[in-house]
Each structure stands twice: as C-alpha cells, then as structure tokens.
Amino acid sequence: MPRQNVPLSFLGKHPLTVTNENKIMNTSRIAISSSSASSSAFVVKVSLVAALGGLLFGYDTAVIAGVIGYLQKRFELSPIMTGWAASSAIWGCAFGAMMAGYLSDRFGRKKVLILTAVLFIISSLGAMIPTNLTQFLIARFIGGLGIGAASMLSPLYISEIAPSRSRGRLVSLYQLAIVIGINLIYFVNLLIASYGDEAWNVETGWRYMLGSGTIPAVLFLLLLFIVPESPRWLVKKGKDDEAFDTLEKVNGTAEGENVLNEIKETLGQEVGTLSDLFSRRLRPALVIGIVLALFSQITGINAIIYYAPEIFKSVGFASDSALLQTVLIGAINTLFTFVALWLIDRAGRKTLLQWGVAGMVVCLFAVGVCFHYNLTSGPWLILFILAYIAFFASSLGPIPWVLISEIFPTRTRGIAMSFCTVILWVGVLAITQFTPWLLENAGGASTFWIFMLNAIVLLWFVWKRAPETKQRTLEEIEQSWKR
C-alpha cells in the first residue's frame, strides 16, 4: 500500500502553528545558549580576578629564591638566619590566614581581599629599601599577612561563586595563578640579575626583585572593585536579593533560585561556631583538611621552589645557570597545572591525587639516590626534580585548595578554611626554616628521603579517607557529612 501524506491538521495542529512553535523553540534555544555563554564568561571573569591573589602568593613567596643568595652575602647570614630571612614572610602568612576567616565571615570575602592587596603593596615597597635585616623582616612579615589571608580567601571566594559543574577547574585557577606567579618572578629575577655583576646584585639587584611585586599588587587591587561579594556570604547576612543577582548571572534564573533555596536551607540548619567545627559531625572533614594542607607542603615542594638555585649551586651549577634551572622548573609547574585543570572535573579529585602522589614518591626516592651516589653532575638530578614538579602540579598542587574549599559548611567555611590554611603555612614554615639546615647537616639524600616518607603517609591517607566531590554542589557535600 503506498505511503500517504497525512495533513498536520489531522494531528490537531495547523502547519503555520507548528512553524511558529519551531521558531519559538529555536529562539528559546538561542536565548538559553546565549545566557549560558554569558554566565560562563561572568564566572570565569570573577574567578580570574580572585585567582590573582594566587599570583601574588606565588610571586611574593618565590621571589626569595632569587634574593636569598644575595641577601645571605649582604647581611652575612648563617644557615639558621638564612632560613629565618626566607621564612619571615611565612610567619606573616600563618597569622594572616588565622585572622582571615574571622574577618571574612564578619566583613565579607571581597573587603578582606582588598585589604590583602594593600598589604602586598606596602610589603613590596618596604622590602626594597631596608638598611638592616630587621627592617627587611618586618616588611616581609607584612606581606606575609596579605599572602596568608589571600591563600585562604581566594579559593574560598571562587568555590562559593562557581557552579558545581566547573568548580574544580575554577578553584584550580588559583593554583594555576600561583605557579604563573612563581614562573613570572623567576623570569623577573633572572632579568634583573643580568643587569649587573655579583657585587651589584648583592648591593642593589635584590631590591628591584622585591620591589617588582608592587605592579601585580596594584593590578589586583584595582580589579577587585569590579567583582561582586560572595553570594553565600550575602545570604548569611540576610541580603538575599544581592545574592540572587550574582547567582542568576552564574546559574541562570531557575537554577539560581534553586541554589539560593539550598543555601538558605543549609544555613538554617548550621550552628556556625568554633566548637561546631570540632564537633563529631564535622571532625572527618576537619581531619581531611588538616592532613591535605600540612602534607601538601611537607612533601618538599617549597624546598625546591624557594631553594632551587642554592641546591643547584651546591652541586656545581654556576649562579646564572642555577637561576635558569628555576625558570625551567616554573615552566613545568605551569604546564602541568593546566593538566590538572583539564582532568580535575573529569578524573575526579581522589583519583588524580592518588596517581600524582604515587609519582612524587618515586621521584623523591630517585632524587635522594642521585645525591647518595653523587649523580648530581649529569642530567638525572634535574630530570627527576622536573618529574616531581610535574606530578605535584597535576595533583597535590591544586587539589587540596579545591577540597578544603568544598568540604565545610557555608556558615563555618571561613573559619574552617582559615584553620586549615594556618596548618598549611605551618608546614611551609617548617620546610622554609629547616631546609638549609637539613641540606647542610643531613645531606641531600636524607632530606629528600624524609620528604618521600611524608608522601607515602599522604598516599595511604588519600586512599583510605579522602572523599570524591566532583559534580556535587557545596550543599550536597555538606549533607553527606550529616548522613
């Protein structure tokens, strides 16, 4: 039987009506697509501005790698005093992170980020003009206050504004900014050092290295005035309309309303006190946050980031060659942070962390072998250090910032992240203070094998205790602790 054409009117719709409905549907799709693109652009813009706090973190802490050798000669420092000069900013970081949680919960994430930018500027200018070590230490401590506060607030702010589908990548922008800041200052240090000889750098060059941090700090300060306050903090303060304006830009109208309702519901169930942070319900999250924060540092990353030039000089590299090696380290660090951005919302936080830390264990063992058997003059030492950097940058670099910013309730997130970030800076402080002493008294092999043992402990902990949080809203993660 031949196929017959059935008029559309038989189906209850006039052909013109169907045509018009198709046009309406197509128009709706275009509008939704346009709205989605606009939301994505808004989120990326805001996240990039907040992530500049990470760029200043990397820039201001890693500048010491180029400065410390000249500073040691300028002020005739012993190994312990060299560690003290390098760690002076880190002491400020610990205090800055300690205060940032309370201040941001009371005055808002954005206002305190603005304060951190001001502290960066004061420190950069102050650190380039000291006439004695005490003045230098005070200026660096002030900068540390800003670094510590930003290290907690930038990822927290991004996590509170980002949609769940892309939160991992967006919070990881903070770590990417850190490594870009490290890479940038390595180039700046190398460029400044090339303008004069050793005597000029000992007297003057290091001052320009430190003062150059003023430029990114001013940029960060200006850009902060164009981003909104955290919507979750606004809801906490009863400013629902302002919060919805931002949530709508991020998620669209319908989803924005859902997220707003979720935030209000979970805030209503929270106590939000320091004792609540140590309660039985949140204790697993707190333990995870503390361990990830501490072990992300005591597995040795900052021994390389801060002291790489001195390590390379100790095994026979010339000063200019040692600085050039740090540029290579910074490039690998940056490249593999992009790998983390690509994988973190695909492979997941836990899987990526396990593979990365396992690779770090192997590389740290190999670096120790190079020192033990005096294989430092060939390519093997630098190759294993670069491989270690690659594994760290693609896993343990960004993931602790992401997880710590995700696993705590909104009402206690500020103080919880502040607490964990203080622990992180304690780890940085220990590595920065004692690495020169360890290298001189224990030797390179024992130093890196200590870092390896710490990485093994972390690998076991991640396997047993770390949660997977990809594709889950902050409110869903919070409810999982209650269950």
General form: globular
Listing every helix as H and every strand as E from the N terminus to the C terminus, the arrangement reads HHHHHHHHHHHHHHHHHHHH
What structural class do the secondary elements suggest? mainly alpha
Cα-atom radius of gyration: 25 Å
Mean pLDDT: 82
Residue windows where pLDDT falls under 50 for at least 5 positions: 1-34
User: Main beta sheet: strand number and arrangement?
Assistant: none
Strand content: under 5%
Tally of strands: 0
Distance N to C terminus: 63 Å
Helix content: over 70%
Total number of helical segments?
A: 20
Give a written overview of the molecule.
- With 483 residues, the chain is mainly alpha-helical.
- It has helices spanning 15-75, 79-107, 109-127, 133-161, 167-193, 198-211, 214-224, 231-236, 240-251, 253-269, 274-277, 283-298, 301-314, 319-343, 349-372, 380-393, 399-406, 410-441, 443-465, 474-482.
- The chain has 20 helices and no strands.
- Helix 18 (410-441) packs antiparallel against helix 19 (443-465).
